[in-house]
Specification:
Elements (H helix, E strand, L loop, with lengths): L36 E2 L1 H10 L4 H12 L2 H6 L23 E3 L6 H10 L6 H4 E2 L2 E2 L3 H10 L4 H16 L8 E3 L2 H16 L11 E5 L16 H4 L7 H8 L3 E6 L19 E2 L2 E5 L5 H8 L5 E6 L5 H7 L2 E4 L19 E6 L2 H11 L13 E3 L11 E5 H4 L4 H18 L2 E5 L4 H24 L9 H10 L4 H21 L5 E5 L17 E2 L1 H7 L4 H5 L4 E8 L5 E8 L4 H15 L17
Parallel strand pairs: 6-7, 6-10, 14-15, 14-16
Antiparallel strand pairs: 1-17, 2-13, 3-4, 5-7, 8-9, 10-12, 11-12, 11-18, 16-19, 18-19
Helix pairs in contact: 1-17, 4-13, 7-8, 11-12, 13-21, 15-21, 16-17, 16-18
Length: about 600
């Protein structure tokens, strides 16, 4: 019985759980029992895992040792399952916002968003030699004739070529078509010459994660087979909206294969490297999108966030990562790998650029009784909202490296000192249980969505690390999936209770800064579940519960790697999150260091 028996957890009703700061709820820090393996060891592990009977036994032991059976699959949970993370219309009061009119075009919404920004943001432009050019900087340079979209596009293509050279080998893009990019840029140049740009985004380069349809490229999902099996016939809705604003779609950015990892290591297309240190990972799965923004190649890029896959690489690369409320953006044209937890998101160099991109791609096609109308924040260089209450769950917050914990605590103190915002001590219970339930959910949905392809596919077409992930995903039972949805219901209740007294929940974005990109993983990928668990420790509520969340860089560790702080909001409170992140940016941006790999596309030749 020993190997196959486990003591299942019996959960008390959610309404009886104490959410106060002195709660006796046990915090379980992930005790991952799996060594890092790469290279030949990964291949041996896959060979054993795919053996009949032996592989099943190994999977059972892995799930048992990592508490999936105890906390999820075999647990007794009183709540009924909640199968989606969607939220009904809620009248969420927000301070200092502009309510946009319904049925505006994407370009008109961008104009509204630009009107909510201050004239100049000097503190976000220059810090320690770092000049992060914003969307409005590009637009002004084009309008004044200082440069043109075509000239910037040529500099961009030269930078992509240089960064792809074996000397750097940054692995930013999977596909980048110079002819198509120049065609878009030349058309934008003509519009500026006629004095008729479509919007502030006209001529601005935007990267698109290769999980989102964007013509003329195939959508590979980071694989070498999916682009052929699933032809791309049209732009995704979010891409079409950006194109309608005149944005220059700059190619398909690199990603972890099928989004099934946290490192961004891709054996098929090369691994996206971190511009702050090319020997470190960029994070996953939206690795390329985070890296191109960090390196100055694009002020904005699109990603997809199913388990922190926008926010986590954004934090590792020192940029803004923004995931709106589930249902706020259209999912049309996004690979349906995990439909109840994943959605498109935004990576940007600054909060104001995240706000502009958000205004362009928000979905207003549904009636207003399905979701609130769009609020855009009036961002100013002085505190624009007051009496903000930040909920902090101390044991969870502190379960990070010393550098991250110290930096994030200092950032919270800065918010209190400069703006008078209050931090409330709370307990968010069952964090590890939620992480495991999310893992079961995202894995089950990924397997279901890909089954029609995987059944016909040779295993050799799939990367070694992803073969392990798919093997684990396919082992989850219907009971495990149902219990995961019961845990989703509990967490939805807990978070709603916390939001009765707090405006946002605050946490570090990751438990560690960017791990090393090791040579033995480049051709096989790696299994590093210890770092993986630390990287997604703070990501899950945004996806599993469909809550809006944003991360902003607040400092660096001792080796100069970025540290991100995360704010999680009530459903539909994107404007409040942008306000808070903007205030944090204003307070911290002067301490940002320049990445080691960085391109200034507005620098005069």
């Amino acid at each position: 019985m020993g190997v196959f028996s486990s003591s299942a957890k019996v959960y008390q009703p959610a309404a009886e759980v104490d959410l106060g700061p002195g709660s006796g709820e046990l915090y379980i820090s992930p005790n991952v029992k799996a060594p890092r393996v790469a290279g030949l060891l990964v291949k041996i592990f896959v060979w054993i895992l795919e053996l009949p009977i032996v592989g099943w036994v190994l999977l059972y032991i892995l799930k048992k040792d990592n508490l999936i059976n105890k906390l999820v699959s075999e647990a007794e949970i009183p709540e009924p399952p909640l199968f989606t993370a969607t939220h009904s219309w809620e009248d969420t009061p927000e301070q200092n916002v502009s309510l946009t009119k319904p049925n505006l075009s994407p370009a008109e919404r961008v104009q509204e968003a630009v009107g909510c920004l201050p004239e100049r943001l000097e503190s976000t432009l220059v810090a320690d030699g770092l000049k992060r050019w914003t969307i409005r900087d590009f637009s002004r340079a084009y309008s004044s004739g200082e440069t043109t979209p075509a000239q910037v596009a040529k500099r961009f293509l030269a930078a992509v070529k240089e960064s792809s050279d074996p000397t750097l080998n940054m692995g930013f893009f999977i596909s980048c078509d110079p002819e198509d990019i120049m065609k878009q840029a030349e058309e934008s140049t003509l519009r500026y010459q006629r004095g008729a740009p479509l919007s502030a985004l006209d001529g601005v380069l935007v990267g698109v994660k290769d999980e989102i349809d964007c013509l003329p490229y195939p959508t590979t999902g980071g694989t070498r087979w999916l682009g052929k099996a699933r032809p791309c016939g049209a732009d995704a809705e979010c891409v079409a909206q950006l194109r309608a604003c005149g944005a220059v779609l700059a190619g398909k950015t690199n990603m972890h294969e099928l989004g099934a990892g946290t490192s961004g290591i891709n054996p098929h297309h090369g691994s996206a490297r971190n511009p702050y240190n090319a020997g470190k990972v960029a994070g996953g799965s939206s690795s390329g999108s985070a890296a191109v923004v960090c390196a100055g190649l694009c002020p904005v890029a699109l990603g997809v966030d199913g388990g922190g896959s926008v926010r986590m690489p954004a934090a590792l690369c020192g940029v803004v990562g923004f995931k709106p409320t589930a249902g706020r953006l259209s999912s049309a044209g996004v690979l349906p790998l995990n439909w109840t937890v994943g959605m498109a998101g935004i990576l940007a160099g600054t909060v104001e650029d995240a706000a502009i991109a958000y205004s362009a791609i928000v979905d207003q096609s549904q009636p207003s009784y399905f979701r609130p109308e769009l609020n855009l924040p009036f961002l100013t260089s002085t505190p624009s909202i007051s009496n903000v209450k930040l909920a902090k769950s101390a044991k969870w917050f502190n379960d990070s490296s010393d550098d991250i914990r110290s930096c994030c605590d200092k950032a919270l103190q800065t918010l209190h000192t400069q703006y008078g915002w209050e931090t409330l001590d709370v307990t968010i219970p069952e964090i590890e249980e939620m992480r495991l339930a999310h893992y079961v959910t995202i894995g089950s949905e990924c397997t279901a969505s890909l089954s029609k392809y995987l059944d016909k596919l040779k295993r050799s077409e799939i990367g070694w690390d992803v073969r392990v992930a798919l093997g684990v995903y396919g082992s989850f039972s219907s009971r495990a999936y149902l219990n995961s949805q019961r845990l989703r219901n509990r967490q939805m209740f807990f978070h709603k209770q916390i939001f009765k007294t707090a405006d946002v929940i605050v946490s570090p974005m990751t438990g560690v800064t960017a791990p090393a990109l090791q040579d033995d993983a480049l051709k096989t990928g790696e299994l590093d579940y210890i770092n993986g668990a630390a990287l997604i420790r703070y990501s899950i509520a945004g996806n599993f519960l469909g809550l809006p969340a944003i991360t902003i860089m607040v400092g660096q560790d001792k080796s100069g790697l970025p540290i991100g702080l995360q704010f999680i909001g009530r459903p539909w409170s994107e404007a409040t999150l942008l306000h808070i992140a903007f205030a944090m940016q204003e307070a911290c941006s002067k301490n940002h260091r320049k990445p080691a790999v960085f391109y200034d596309l507005l620098k005069k030749d």
